[in-house]
Model the fold of this input.
Amino acid sequence: MKKLLLTLTAILLSAQIFADGHTAIERAVANNARPEADSARDTARKPADVLEFFGIEPGMKVLDIFAGGGYYSEILSYAVGTEGSVTLYNNGGWDGFVGAGVEERLESNRLPNVESMVAEANATNFDANSFDAAVFVLGFHDLYYAEESWPAIDADNFLAAIYASIKPGGVLGIVDHGATAGNSVEVANTLHRIDPGVIRFAMAKAGFEFVEESNILRNGGDPLIVPMSDPAIRGNTDRVVHLYRKPSM
Done:
């Protein structure tokens, strides 16, 4: 009975508009406890719109893939609430890139429902059918990136592991820097971008169903042929926003 009541509460909260006119996700983004540096990035990233599109709800257990310093993990922490949880996952490359960023974000147990996990992509060990949702923001192209400090990733095996970790009927939301259609995965190394078609093919191969695409982060002024870090476009690239679902059994 208790479990049923908690489930019903989570469902009601997910659709609830609070007295201040905001949803649970909007409240999470507006939380004054968020670092100022994070909030400054919201205009370009539109996290409330993105997470609403992904269907994130209170009570969910969410995996944040290649989470970096935890920008989205913190918002997710507030959005899923005390009945939910977030796994902030990085591989060694990302963990080294962000340095002490994750430790500083989680220090003094300031986000008690967030757990940090570091493991190489080729050696992940997620529990099967354990996550209601996963988000993969600005890192899908890294599955095809390789250099001395970033061991090559077996993208098929990694996505298979992610697929296995998501509950039947669960979702995976992807945001990434778009590349010109037809480009090979080599642009991951040169431009840090990816052709949306590559994402759809890889996700279908892993067993995911494509649900929908959103235009909320599109930018028609992005030429798509310059590195995402180019000063003229950095922070405002044309971004792929896809939602996928693991089929229900």
